[in-house]
Amino acid sequence: MNSDLDRFTWKRKMVKICCIGAGYVGGPTMAVIAIKCPSIEVAVVDISKFRIAAWNSDQLPIYEPGLDDVVKQCRGKNLFFSTDVEKHVFEADIVFVSVNTPTKTQGLGAGKAADLTYWESAARMIADVSKSDKIVVEKSTVPVKTAEAIEKILTHNSKGIKFQILSNPEFLAEGTAIQDLFKPDRVLIGGRETPEGQKAIQALKDVYAHWVPEERILTTNLWSAELSKLAANAFLAQRISSVNAMSALCEATGANVQQVSFAVGTDTRIGPKFLNASVGFGGSCFQKDILNLVYICECNGLPEVAEYWKQVIKINDYQKSRFVNRVVSSMFNTVSNKKIAILGFAFKKDTGDTRETPAIDVCKGLVGDKANLSIYDPQVTEDQIQRDLSMNKFDWDHPIHLQPTSPTTVKKVSVVWDAYEATKDAHGICILTEWDEFKALDYQKIYDNMQKPAFVFDGRNIVDADKLRDIGFIVYSIGKPLDPWLKDMPAVA
């Protein structure tokens, strides 16, 4: 009876959620909570005035199909974007923390461990401004046992305020994030196995229960929830690296990786998803989370396990360098001063996100061989492309106000807003993002306006290679039988 009363009391007074961090996770997640829970006030806060101004404008700071409509339905009603971080944290009952957890670039664990500077700063601020009990929810992807560290910071600075820490990792796929939030495979909530911890879990379950069936809301202990996120991303990345490793063997033997993938995917124990060979995986999570997993394994005396997961990243790096080598070797072993059109810069279609996109390494590899690049992507700005090509590794994951404000323009790189302009007078085309529009281009028109011989290097297997060969192109498709032109060309420099 008492627990029912506690839940009723909590529901009655739970009117305010605050999310610290207005990025790819915080913004869409809170927008969907707001539209599904009209009785709950949701505030998204960030210290970046530029980012908050964009969330309050007609041009949102991120592109995600369906996001614009959801934000506009709720904004100003029960969804608010603000730079007044402390005010909204002070008022909130539940505080989601969705701040950056970049890979450390120096010190202990450099190149692998997560940098928890921003998380610790957020925790100390929550402790400083809170005057009432709060549930603090980890929404960022964090190392296992982060909750314990955050708990210590909050407890030692609490001034009598009680905090419950929950882990609620996101499992969004960019490009389908809104649909993923509307109809999630699962919502995972980890908390302490104490009466207070269970009450906190129930409070967060009550929020999601507005639209998520109860059987899809999974509850675990804190450490299992934290590790589940790293494990999920590691398993997905592993599948991509596995099929990409197979693509190299397919090219060497004359097999077709798409036929192999289809045959393998029909095994119900394996399934067909994440078996598309490509130039490599990207995005903000896969590499970072695997490096994090490697570091945790090493710290726990598991070098063999660490080495296993390292190989997933090694294959990904190998696939990107293999692609660059294939481009250079096919074009008479030099691309110096040749125009190469880059179609697609985002790490996948239907997003403007360029974090860890394979296009960065491919472009840097080609520029390193003195190619002139003409880049077109329908959702990525010239400023972002130049920033990505001039930034050091892992700098992208620090808040934008700590990144270079005016990136150094990379010589030999131009950015255009039309695929036909990008390919005009080009010697070769590299397709690096699977945007639907690239399938529908007039390739006869493109061929007529290119230097000859004209090459297409399809890093996403989206074009009909036979049709392009009929036009006159020399075509390289990842993991497909090689064009006769390419058979005697070395795959590795």
From TrEMBL:
Domain spans labelled UDP-glucose/GDP-mannose dehydrogenase C-terminal: 341-465
Molecular function in Gene Ontology: NAD binding; UDP-glucose 6-dehydrogenase activity
Protein's UniProt keywords contain NAD: yes
GO biological process, one term: UDP-glucuronate biosynthetic process
Catalytic activity: UDP-alpha-D-glucose + 2 NAD(+) + H2O = UDP-alpha-D-glucuronate + 2 NADH + 3 H(+)
GO CC, one annotated term: nucleus
InterPro entries associated with the record: 6-PGluconate_DH-like_C_sf (IPR008927), NAD(P)-bd_dom_sf (IPR036291), UDP-Glc/GDP-Man (IPR017476), UDP-Glc/GDP-Man_DH_C (IPR014027), UDP-Glc/GDP-Man_DH_C_sf (IPR036220), UDP-Glc/GDP-Man_DH_dimer (IPR014026), UDP-Glc/GDP-Man_DH_N (IPR001732), UDPglc_DH_euk (IPR028356)
Protein's pathway: Nucleotide-sugar biosynthesis; UDP-alpha-D-glucuronate biosynthesis; UDP-alpha-D-glucuronate from UDP-alpha-D-glucose: step 1/1
Record keywords, A-Z: NAD, Oxidoreductase
Enzyme class, broadest EC rank: oxidoreductase
EC number: 1.1.1.22
Keyword Oxidoreductase: yes
Signal peptide: none
Positions bound to NAD(+): 21-26, 46, 51, 99-103, 140-141, 174, 285-288, 355
SUPFAM superfamilies recorded: 6-phosphogluconate dehydrogenase C-terminal domain-like, NAD(P)-binding Rossmann-fold domains, UDP-glucose/GDP-mannose dehydrogenase C-terminal domain
Entry annotation: catalytic residues: C285
Family assignment from sequence similarity: Belongs to the UDP-glucose/GDP-mannose dehydrogenase family.
PANTHER family: UDP-GLUCOSE 6-DEHYDROGENASE 2, UDP-GLUCOSE DEHYDROGENASE/UDP-MANNAC DEHYDROGENASE
Protein name: UDP-glucose 6-dehydrogenase
Species of provenance: Crotalaria pallida (Smooth rattlebox)
